[in-house]
Amino acid sequence: MSTEKNMKKQIVAAVLGVAVVCGVGVGIAANALTTDPPQKSRTSAGSTLTPVSRLVVKPGAVGPVAIGTSRRAALASGYFVRGVSPVEGCPAPPLAWRQAYADALDVQTLGNGTISSIGIRGKGPRTKQGLGVGSTWGEVRKYTDAAHEAGYGQSGAYVYDRQAGGYVGFLFNESLARLSDASKVTFVEVTQGSEPGLTRDGC
Questions:
Q1: Which residue from 1, 68, 127, 139 lies 20 to 30 Å from 165 (Cα-Cα)?
Q2: Do 150 and 126 touch, CB atoms closer than 8 A?
């Protein structure tokens, strides 16, 4: 009788174990079906970050990021992370755009980490007039006639906001002599207080 009772207890325990496991499995599945989708990236202050495709370029700023922003404030904004060396032998930069933005944007800083220049390589960020990478000289020159040689057989132009003291520069692969209305913008640079150089070094 003792052996029979023990066997019954083991069967009951096994059935309960299966029920508990199944219950947990069903709970996990139900939770997966009812959980809200992941939220958009947020800053440390809790505000939602603007997607790269919706960043507005203006003289002296790209979206909410202004030239002159300190390293500390840039990191707190949520748009940047601490930089790592892109090439062996090059020093690690103080700042880098977070991954979701890094394919379209770059950043240069002063020695203390303050943002001094923002470069745009991707087609997402544009001015309120719709100018950006891929725009033509015919479109850009409606807002500026100041085309100039930019070195390396390229040419450039910029829009300047006197009140803000900021610039948006546009780079074209053609030299000034070969620049035409069909020439396309290949790079955009935003600066404050000084004209965009429209160049980036190896590091």
A1: 139
A2: no
- Cα–Cα distance measured from residue 109 to residue 11, given in angstroms and rounded to the nearest whole number: 70
Task: Tell which residue, 76, 57, 42, has the closest CA to residue 161.
Answer: 57
CB atoms inside a 10 Å sphere around CB 169 = 26
With vertex at residue 165, the alpha carbon angle to CA 160 and CA 171, rounded to the nearest 5 degrees, is: 40
Rounded to two decimals, what is the model's pTM? 0.77
Rounded to whole angstroms, the Cα distance separating 78 from 34 reads 29
Q: Which residue has the tokens 């069909």?
A: 182
In this structure, the chain runs to a length of: 203
Residue 159 and residue 59 in contact, taking contact as beta carbons nearer than 8 Å = yes
**Residue pLDDT tens, the chain, 203 long:** 444 444 444 433 433 333 333 333 333 233 332 233 333 455 544 569 999 999 999 999 999 999 999 999 999 999 999 998 877 888 899 999 999 999 999 999 999 999 999 999 998 999 999 999 999 999 999 999 789 999 999 999 999 999 999 999 999 999 999 999 999 999 999 999 999 999 987 77
User: Hey, what are 133's tokens?
Assistant: 């990478």
